[in-house]
Structures are given as C-alpha cells and as structure tokens.
Amino acid sequence: MRSRLHLIAFLLIVFALPLLIRNPYGQHILVMSGIFVLFSVGLNIIVGFLGQLSLGHSAYFGIGAYAYAILLLNVGIPWFLSLCLAVMISGLFGFLIGYPSLRLKGPYFAIVSLAFAMIIRLIAVNWQSLTNGPMGITGIKPPNIPLIGGRSLCFDSALSNYYLILCFVILGIFVLHRIRHSRAGDTFDACRENEELAQSVGINTSRAKIVALIISTMFIGASGGLYAQYVTYISPEIFGWYYIATPLIMVIIGGAGTIAGPIIGAVIFTFLPEFLRALAEYRLVIFGLIMIVGVLFMPEGMYGIWQKISKVKAEK
Amino acid sequence: MDFVVQIAQQLTNGLVIGVIYTLMAVGLTIAFGIMNVGNFAQGEFYMLGAVATFFLVATLELNYFLSLLLSGLIIFALGAVVEFLAIKPLQSRGFMPLILSTLGLSIFFQHMALILWGPIPRSIPSPLSRKPICLFDIYITPQRMLIFVAGILIILALYLLIKKTKIGIAMRAVAKDSNTASLMGINIRRVHLFSFGLSCSLAALGGGLIGPLHTISPMMGEVPVIKAFSVVIMGGMGNVQGAIAAGFILGVVESMAAGFISTSYKDAIAFGIMIVVLLFRPEGIFGKQGLK
Amino acid sequence: MSILRVENLTKNFGGVLALSDLTFEVEPGKVFGIIGPNGSGKTTFFNLTTGFLRPDRGRILFDGKDMTRLPSHRIASSGIVRTYQSTSLFDKLSVADNVRIGTHSRTCSGVFDAIFSRRKTRLDREYAGKRVAELLAFTGLAHEEGERAESLSYGDQRRLEIAIALATDPKLLLLDEPAAGMNQAESEALADLVRELRSKDITVLIVEHNMKLMMKLCDRILVLDHGIRLVEDVPENIIKNPEVIKVYFGEELEFA
After folding, report:
1. C-alpha distance from B153 to closest chain A C-alpha (Å)
2. Residue C25: enclosing H or E segment and its boundaries?
3. Nearest to B212 by CA among B128, B120, B132
4. Which residues of A, range 109-148, sit inside 8 Å of B by Cβ?
5. How many C-beta atoms surround the C-beta of residue B118 within 10 A?
6. Interchain CB distance below 8 Å, A288 and B226
7. A132 - beta bridge partners?
8. Of A132, B93, B120, C104, whose Cβ has the fewest other Cβ atoms within 10 Å?
9. Residues of A with CB below 8 A from C93's CB?
10. What is the mean pLDDT of residues B231-249?
11. What's the rounded Cα separation, in Å, for the pair C70 and B56?
C-alpha cells in the first residue's frame, strides 16, 4: 500500500513539474530528460534485461528521428501516424540487424552493433537526396491537433511537448513493467543468466533475444521521433558517439536491469550537464570521469545503492 | 600503362595508411591477447601521441624524430598508469565493465584534449620537405616514405621484442595461459602493465607519424579506432601477425576503393568487412593463434 | 514401445571418434544407467540427445519421433530434459525464480499477453506458483525459496537443478553425474529421489561413476568404452562381465 501512495505522489509531482519550473530553459531540460528517459528505458532492455552490451543504439535513435521527419515532410503523413511508422521502422531495423548478430557473444555483438551504427551514419551523411546529407533536416513542423470549435492544440512549446512525451514515457514504462513481471520477463532473465540452461528447459533463446531487441529498438526509435518533433531540426550527428555514450552512462550508472535505474540515470545525466554549465568545456571531461568511477565503484548503479541503503534502514 | 600507374599509386598510398592502421591494430590485439581487454580509448592514445609530438616539436623545439620517440615513451607511461587505475580493478568483472571504462577514458581524453588544444586543427612541423618525389611515375612525399619505413622498423623492433627478449616471452606465455604463466613465476602484473603501455605507445607512434601529414584534432582518433578494431577482427583477436597483414590489406583496399570507386563510402569498407568477418568467421581470416 | 531409441549414433570430433555406431533402447518408466571410464562418450551422448551437438550419423527417436535435427529448446519442450555435470543454475535469481523458469514450456503467455491480457498472465502465474511450491516441497528446498541460487550449499544446488528439470514436466530425464561430490547420506537421498521419480512414470537415464548407487538404482545398465557399446544388461550381470572388469581394470571404481 505504501508503494502505491509513493507512486501516486511521484506521478503528481512529475505532472506538476513544468508548472513549478516556469523558467523556459528549465522546461526545455525537462523535455530533454523525458526523451532520454524513454531512450534509456529502451536501451535497458538490451543492456540490463538481456545483459548484452550495445554500442550501436544511436542508429535506432537516428532512424526513428529521420523516419519521422521524412515521413512527415516528404511523404506528408500526419504526425501521429508518422511517429508510429517511425517506431515500427526502428523495430524493423532492430530485427534486420539483430537477427544475424544476436548469436554472437558479448563483445562481438557490441562491436558489430557499432559497425552497423557507423554504416548507417555514413548513409545518412551521403544519401543526400533522402536525408539532406550533413545539413540535416530542418523545419519539422510541430504537431497540430484540431479541436472542436475551430481552435487547435499546437505542440510548439516546451510545456506542451513535456506532457506529450510524458504520456509516451508513462505508457512505455507501463508496458515494460508488465513485460518484466511476466513469463516473457522471466525468459529474458533466463537468457541473461544462463543461456544454455534456458535452452535446456525449452526456452527459444534466439527468439527471445530478437523480441527483446525489437522492443528495445522500438522504444529508442520512439524517443528519436519525439526528439525530432521537439527540436524540429536533426542532423547526422545524432548517430554519433554522444548518443551512444550518454544513454549507456544513464543506464549503467542509473542501475541496469531495473526499471527505476535508467529513469534515475536519465534524469540525473540530463540535469547534471546543466548544473555543470559553469564548468563549460569540463562538462564532458567530468562525464568521462563519472563513467569510469561509476563503473569502478558502483556496479549496481545508483538505484542499487539506493536499494542497499533502504535495506539497511529497514533492518535497523 | 596509365592504369597500371594509377593502381601502383593507390597501392603505395594504401600501404602508407596501412602502416598507421597496423600500428594501432597491433597495439589493440596485444591488449586483447594478453589482457582480454578491448581498448576503446586506443584512438585517444593515437591522438595523444600526435599531440605530444606536436608539443615537443613546436614548443620545446626538439628534433622531430626525437620527439616521436619521446612521445612514444610518454604515452607508454600514461598507458601503464591507465592500466593500473582503470583496467586492473575491473579485470575480474568481465568484458562489459572494461569496455565501459575505456569508453569513459575515451570521452575523458577527447574532451581534455579539446580544452587544452582548442578546436583549431594544426599539423606537426616536420623537417622533411613537402615536395613529392617521383619514382616510376608514382608520387610519394618524403613524409609518407618515412611513415612506411618507420612503420616497418617499428614492426621489426616489435617482432624482436616479442620473440627474443625476456619480457616478450613472458608476454607470449601470459597470452597463451596466464594461470600456468603465473605458476611458472612470471609476474603477471608487470606483464600487464608493460603490454598495455606498449599497446598505447604503438598507437601514439602512429599518431606522431601521421601528424605532419594530416591535421591534428582532439577527435582524430574516433574513426581510426573503429578501423583498428576491424583490422584486429580480420586478423584474429590476439594474432599479431594477422593484425599486421590485415592492416596493410585494409589500407590498400580502402585506397583502391577510394581511388576507383568513391571516396565518400570508403570508411564503410572497414565497417562492412568487420561485420562480414564477425558473422561468418569470427575467429578472423587468419584465425586466433595467440601472440605470435 | 521404447521411449528412447538410439540408432547407429556416431560423432567425430576432428579425428577423435567420441561415439561409434551406438544403438540401444530404453523402456518407459525405467531407470537406465550408462557407465564407462572417463572419455567414453557419455557426456557427448547427452549433448547429442538434447540437441547441443549434431551427430555425424545415426538417429535419436523419442516416443517414435525423430529428434535428431531438432534445436535444443524444442527437444526440451518435447519432454527430454537434462541436468549438467557441473552445476548449472540461474545464479543471481532466487530459488523460486529458478524453478518458475523451468515451467516455461508448460505455460504459454507471450509478450503481447503480458501487455494486453491480464487473464492469461494471471493463469500462468497461478500455475507456475503451484508447480514451484510442489517442486520445492518435493526436493526439500521450500525454506530456501527466496535465496539466491548461488548462495545455496552444493547439495542444495544439485537438488535445485533437479527441481528445475522437473518443472518442465519431462517424460525423460537425463541426469549427468548427479551424485558427483556427494557423500553417502546425500547419495542415499538422491537415490530415494530417483525412485520417487520412477513412481511418477518419469523415465530416468543416469550417467554415473558411483557403481554402488548404479547397482541399486538401475533396471538396466549400458557400458560404454571409447564411444563403443560394450554390453547392455541388468546390473547383476554387468558386474560379473569379464569385458567390463577388463575395461575398468586400473580405473578407480567407486564403491563409495
């Protein structure tokens, strides 16, 4: 019962946040953290639940973003449908890339995923007729929902985008929670802990891994599409190292394998650079250090530490 | 006739760039074979080597060749320090924490360099003339010749080190079976420190050699490191001879493709080969033969 | 009809002939033992039967159906389940989770059901919960329910392995040296467990070095030597067989 109350209180705060933080830049950071929460939660399915290191997830973020932009602007599909299609296209790529590579062992899978991401980045830079090359795509119009009475709801402000993205985030977390505490979730755990034993009890581990990858890439693609729609401009740099390393830090330092961990990590690591603004160029230097220190001293991530603290408190 | 010359030209260019790939890749493969670590910061040691050489030449006004050697030593020391702080504590925890740690290092070094170096790319002033020599209708600059010659010398020196010296034998033993090696009295810690330092300094030498030719920038290691991984995988992880062969092969193939097909997708060759090899022959084209 | 029929099973490992033309049958509901010196091909046989290796020649028929080329998870869900020589568990998961995962092939809700169908998920959860409780009671692990698998004692870990295998509702259970490292008392407990399995109509195929245990438990024993079937008979005849004694001469016979 207590955790239910905690959850409701937490949700209320989350909904009220942009009204509390009236500063438009602060609201912008809130939106970005929402996008990264979705990204990290999705990435966590591969890294945390399946226990596989991915180094190519920026590809799906970029594919989601570009697919959304291209479908919206070039093909003229309405925004919600574009977003859904972008999610499915990401999932499709996840399947195409994952199918051959998931049978590879840990580090090899990581390197192959990186290679694919680099190739996709190259394509995005060079296939100018489709992606507009290094210039990127600008002018991604924010969604405009016509309401009764002639008015319309336009998602062109940080505030409106925050609630839109929040809906997706909540939906995503709900879906993930259901999956985690289900037979499918058990399957992922089994694949991660002991794949051979999993097969011996009848689990089709290849299929389980592909399913996890598809779900993961759909989440990541969704975050990419929402990103494109919010910032209205995308370029091939979203396929780059920043969008590989940052979500990884968020998942690992936040706490891989849990649902709360990546959320905590995403929020912290979206807000942290802003607090470190004063340190300007040292931001990413510190990022790198945090990554090393985090890996060295916080193997369970921040969520793990929090849990340990609550356990100790409970025992007192 | 003209066609043959073109091929020869691309071949020459390819061999030169191949040296750089080989140096980085041999470093990587040594780290793989002896310590089972995939060093994603190798590109940054490459960059730091270039930066150190530049600093020694431009600021301290030392001779280029001396600077090159010194920067190799400096980065060797840096590598050993990194091994002690960020690699050794994670050895027992599997490959994922190690890769993440080296990724963190990569970010750290890149942005540290960005602060200290600034965003403006510069080249190392070299004592060699910039005028290309013409041999049999093929144009090659003295710097490129130096890269090739120096590369071969470094590889030979490495070969002698691994085959003939005590530490080299120790390295090979640890690569083959570290438990037995330690039972036989080999100081594993020392071997690890030395090997990692060596692996980083090889990349650094590559950076110092390429410095006068290309511009130096803090991000210059980003793409080469992935190609170095590609070479390592082609050659077989831990297989030094394989890495040497594969490094030159990649350099030549890239050069040919750039010259005859298109330059914009030439990077994709390395990535594509890597994927194909991993999917169909993960032990590498030349196979995992341990440190040879 | 026999529950397991092995025909001309042959496996070569780059020059080393692990199994050569192995043929035998197992009657349903019996305890069938396989013995032989180390390297005689026993584990290879298990790997072939459970789909982790493919034979070079020969067939494996389970309940009349050809299992030879099926992937391991399909063989498992058809009713053939094995335990491993060295303990194989889902280390960081709890004992209850371990056993619940074992029930995988007897439940059917997938990802879609997890999201959209509360009913199916609930039914599966109930079934799994029931089975876990049953099996933990059966193997005497009920008090360890919430503990991490890796924190259990060796004997308890072995029992957990069997609990997981039983959770799959197998028709044929392959036990790979289950008594390894056990003392007299533990081996007795294991023997009781195997006898109880027999009473539940589960056919047991057991590979072991502990001869005393095998003599007591098995209805029939097959002797393997260097991948070749030496003899297959009832235990009383096996120990009297001069071929068998010759093969084991110099080997450590555990009359534990």
Report:
1. 31
2. strand C16-26
3. B128
4. 110-112, 114-116, 118-119, 122, 125-126
5. 12
6. no
7. none
8. B120
9. 189, 193
10. 89
11. 65
Do A202 and C110 lie within an 8 Å CB cutoff? Answer: no
Q: Where are the alpha helices (DSSP H) in chain C?
A: 42-49, 72-78, 95-102, 111-116, 118-138, 154-167, 184-199, 211-217, 235-240, 242-248
Angle among Cα C195, C197, C199 to the nearest 5 degrees reads 75
pLDDT at B210 over 80: yes
Structural tokens at position A307:
């849990």
Under 8 Å between Cβ of C49 and C174: yes
Residues A179, C114: C-beta atoms closer than 8 Å: yes
Domain ranges of chain C: 4-32+52-181+194-248
Of C71, C113, C168, the CB nearest to A201: C168
In this complex, do B105 and A119 lie within 8 Å of one another by their Cβ atoms? no
Q: Exposed, middle or buried, A17 (CB in 10 Å: 0-12/13-18/19+)?
A: middle
Residue type, C206: I
The amino acid at residue A79 is W
- Residues C238, C229: Cα–Cα separation, whole Å: 13
User: Measured between CB atoms, does A53 come within 8 Å of chain B?
Assistant: yes
- The structure tokens listed for A1 are 């019962």
H helices of B83-187, where?
A: 95-117, 142-164, 166-176, 178-183
Average pLDDT value for chain B: 86
The whole-number pLDDT of residue A148 equals: 66
**Which of A289, A172, A302 lies closest to A226 in space, CA to CA?**
A172
Selection from B85, B130, B77, B98 nearest residue B31 by Cα: B98
Quote the tokens at residue A235. 């370029």
Between chain A and chain B, the number of residue pairs with CB atoms below 8 A apart is 115
- Separation between Cα atoms, residue B173 and residue B290, nearest integer Å: 10
User: Are A and B close enough to touch, i.e. 3+ CB pairs under 8 angstroms?
Assistant: yes
Closest residue on chain C to A214 (Cα) = C111
Going from the C-alpha of C168 to that of each of A199, A203, B42, C72, the distances in angstroms are 12, 11, 48, 14
* Distance separating alpha carbons of residues C27 and B126, to the nearest angstrom: 84
DSSP labels, B229-277:
HHHHHHH-TT-HHHHHHHHHHHHHHHHHHHHHT-STTHHHHHHHHHHHH
Q: Is C1 on the interface with A (CB under 8 A)?
A: no
Low-confidence ranges of chain A (pLDDT < 70): 1-2, 147-151, 278-280, 316
Q: What is the C-alpha separation between C155 and C136, in angstroms, rounded?
A: 14
Please say whether the beta carbons of A238 and A58 come within 8 A: yes
pLDDT tens-digit map of C43-58 = 889 999 999 989 998 9
Q: What is the mean pLDDT of residues C216-231?
A: 87
CATH code for the structural domain at C4-32+52-181+194-248 = 3.40.50.300
Q: What does the alpha-carbon distance between residue C40 and residue C18 come to, in Å, rounded to a whole number?
A: 7
- The residue count of chain C comes to 256
Would you say A263 and A253 are in contact if contact means Cβ atoms under 8 Å apart? Answer: no
Q: Tell me: the pLDDT tens digits for B100-125?
A: 899 899 989 998 888 888 778 887 77
In this structure, what is the dihedral angle of CA atoms A262, A268, A274, A277, given to the nearest 10 degrees? -110
Cα distance between residue A26 and residue A32, in whole Å? 10
Residue B60, φ and ψ in degrees, nearest 5? -90, -5
**Predicted pLDDT at B292:** 46
CA-to-CA distance for C78 and B273, rounded, in angstroms? 40
Per residue in C96-137, pLDDT (tens digit) is 999 999 999 888 888 877 778 778 888 888 899 999 999 999
Q: For residue C11, what are its two tokens?
A: 């496996």
Is some CB atom of chain B closer than 8 A to the CB atom of A101?
yes
- Across chain C, what does the average pLDDT equal? 86
